[in-house]
Amino acid sequence: MSPKHHPFNKRKILNDPVYGFITVPNELIFDLIEHPDFQRLRRIKQTGMSHLVYPGALHTRFHHALGAMHLMGLAIGSLREKGVDISDDEAQAARIAILLHDIGHGPFSHSLEFSIVKNVNHEMISALLMERLNESFDGKLEEGLRIFANRHEKKFLHQLVSGQLDMDRLDYLSRDSFYTGVSEGVVSNQRIIKMLQVHNDKLVVEQKGIYSIEKFIMARRLMYWQVYLHKTTVAAERLLINILRRAKERARAGDRLFASPALQFFLYDEIQESHFREDPKVLDTFVQLDDFDIMGAIKVWQGAEDHILSKLCRALVNRRLPRAVLTRKPFAERQIAQWKRETAELNGVGDEDIDYFFQTDLIRNHAYAPGTDGIWFLGKSGPPVEFAEATDNPGTLMRNETVEKHVLYLPKEIRIEGHT
User: Fold this and answer.
1) d(CA 201, CA 194)
2) I need a labelling partner for 135 at 20 to 30 A (CA). Which of 160, 205, 384, 411 fits?
3) C-alpha span between 175 and 154 (Å, rounded)
């Protein structure tokens, strides 16, 4: 689809609840935002099922992409003030790269990747959509795509888009904190951006910004446990995945299920990564999918003839979610076997269908990864040092090593000692 260039676009001002007024800097960015592939992000929630825990978390990936673009503009301006060479074309390309970084997200984020398509992730779809958009815009997005793919000669520009201190993370922590009301996620965006510098083509932070970075890393850790990996959120996401898995299974068995044309396409065909690359129809159909397709179908599937699909859908629509129990140590096999039997009896299912109602899993929270691609600090003299060495509070880093927790999903009617 060719973009329509409006002669009166000029600069647009958007009112953002997190940052105040955001400026759309030029007509190319405005036309990108207006494109149907980007407008689709209005219909995809940023935090998936988190609104079932935090009712205010109804913001979208459209909000987030605009916010990240705004922060990119602030970062470019701050670096230029410090003498970093960034041309106008590079500044625009960096904005384009961050604006489009989530363009390939499907409904409810990652739930689709685990259910009705196979081995397909949103990063791959984002890259394909960016290439298609670049053709529509007569190659004007090429430099932005090179930054996104880390093929640009100035590597620090890619770090601003995708790194451990990128504009993506800075925006979603602040935005998700705002809409959920979880104040632990608040970070000092503007101070962190003012502390950024470039040293030998690498993004670094001025030493005096160390405490803001400590707060940033801790905020990310806490937001994962309190929002993204909240036990009720992961229970709802597991239920959604199971619904889509069951619908896919019944579709393959020949059941005629209500679905929008786009959802029907993915339910009744075995779509893999190669199909996205080889058949333009697959990508065209994918961008017709959003949260409304999924929830519209689930509402109807409450009355499905298949009692498992019907029961799962009624549970999600009416927020009768399974219990998710998170522990540092796995449960004993004997206990799991007993709870499985109780779950099967409760739901009237056999061994072949028990995993729609009873599952185990492992989740990880990794707020910061030390090393070459970590966060580096530049003092008044000497080479940059990595966060682990720069901080005077090494305990902060230790608390942010990868934490693993075992998850048990089961009906709330099954009693587990110590968990109500």
Assistant:
1) 18
2) 160
3) 28
Token pair belonging to 260: 């929008």
- Closest by Cα among 175, 170, 150, 134 to 50: 175
Q: What pLDDT score does 1 carry? A: 46
What would be the CATH architecture of the domain defined by 12-100+141-229+367-401?
Answer: Orthogonal Bundle (1.10)
pLDDT digits (tens, 9 = 90+) for 294-305: 999 999 999 999
> Is 45 within 8 Å of 60 (Cβ atoms)?
yes
Residues of the chain with CATH 1.20.1250.30: 231-364
Give the separation between CA 333 and CA 252, rounded to whole angstroms: 33
Report the C-alpha gap between 59 and 51 in whole angstroms.
9
SS3 360: strand
Q: What's the rounded Cα separation, in Å, for the pair 218 and 241?
A: 30
CATH number of this structure's domain 231-364, picked from the four choices 3.40.50.2300, 3.30.2350.10, 1.20.1250.30, 1.10.1040.10:
1.20.1250.30
DSSP letters of 20-52?
EEEEE-SHHHHHHHHSHHHHGGGGSBTTTTGGG
Q: pLDDT, tens digit, for every residue of 213-224?
A: 999 999 999 999
Q: Which spans in 260-374 are helix H? A: 261-268, 273-278, 280-286, 291-301, 307-317, 333-347
**Close Cβ partners of 351 (under 8 Å, ≥ 6 residues apart):** 344
Q: What tens digit of pLDDT does each residue of 183-219 get? A: 999 999 999 999 999 999 999 999 999 999 999 999 9
- What tens digit of pLDDT does each residue of 150-166 get? 999 999 999 999 999 99
Distance, C-alpha 349 to centroid of its chain? 34
SS3 188: coil
